[in-house]
Amino acid sequence: MTNEDKLASGCLQRHWLTIAKFLVIFSLTLTSGACAPNPESENMVARDIPQSRSVHDTAVVTVSGGVQPGFWTNNVVISSEAFSNALAESLRKSGIFRSVVTSGPAAYSLEATLEDLALAQLGGTVILKVDWRLISFSDNQLLWHEKIQTSDTKTLGDALIGVHRKNLAVEAATRKNIEQALAQLAALNF
Predict the structure, then answer these.
(1) Domain harbouring 73, CATH code
(2) Which of the pair, 77 or 128, is modelled with greater confidence?
(3) What is the mean pLDDT of residues 20-25?
(4) Is residue 4 in some structural domain?
(5) Has residue 129 been placed in a domain?
(6) Left if phi > 0, otherwise alpha if psi is -120 to 50, otherwise beta: which for 129?
(7) In a domain, 7, yes or no
(8) Which band of pLDDT confidence, cut at 50, 70 and 90, is reported for residue 7?
(9) Beta strand ranges found along 1-136 (DSSP E)
């Protein structure tokens, strides 16, 4: 075997090794993206919880507009159930209401309508818009109404796989939205 043959054989081996590495990384990326967990409500619970001026009677939490995440979905999604669980837990921690329920009788109704959840064109920025309403059941009076828009960006440093980055951004944008709503509710005189 001549030197030229040895050189050509070595180049060919390196070429196939490079292709094999690429295929392994590509297949791992596909399978880990398909099996990635959906955004989790535990990661959406408010961390920055304001102190309420007073404690109010029981509130029932109602969330609508969410989309149930599905297998192989490319959309940015959050389920109403996950948002509702995070909101209820955040309200319990805040002490704004004596108790928080997701169904049954209550003095107040806190309604959150998920109006828009989008992934910005570039990067891993998620934008969430929620329409919030607090209603008194005793006189059916609207006590508070606000549309809150929050966003969060995650990068390769946060998660290597794109779908994981997207889920982290959804969780953070949701947490920020709930925190802003809690801050306004805590300051509200009702």
Answers:
(1) 3.40.50.10610
(2) 128
(3) 50
(4) no
(5) yes
(6) beta
(7) no
(8) low
(9) 59-64, 100-101, 108-119, 125-136
Structure token pair of residue 81? 């159930």
Distance of CA 134 to the CA centre of its chain: 22
How far, in Å, are 64, 105, 129, 170 from residue 108 at the CA level? 17, 9, 22, 28
Neighbours of 88 (CB within 10 A): 20
Count CB atoms within 10 A of the CB of residue 63. Answer: 23
pLDDT tens, position by position, 110-154? 999 999 988 876 667 899 999 999 999 999 999 999 999 999 988
- 55 in any annotated domain: yes
Domain range spanning residue 40?
36-187
105: Cβ contacts below 8 Å, ≥ 6 apart: 58, 60
Q: How far does the chain reach from its first CA to its final CA, in angstroms? A: 90
Whether residue 91 contacts residue 103, with contact meaning beta carbons closer than 8 Å, is answered with no
Residues, the chain: 190
Kindly report the pTM of this predicted structure.
Answer: 0.77
Is residue 25 packed enough to be buried (19+ CB in 10 Å), middle (13-18) or exposed (0-12)? exposed
**Percent of the chain having pLDDT more than 90?**
55
Residue 159 pLDDT > 90, yes or no?
no
CB 29 within 8 Å of CB 161: yes
Number of domains in the chain: 1
Question: In DSSP terms, which residues pair with 111 in a beta bridge?
Answer: 62, 133
Q: Which alpha helices (H) appear in 35-148, and where do they start and end? A: 80-94
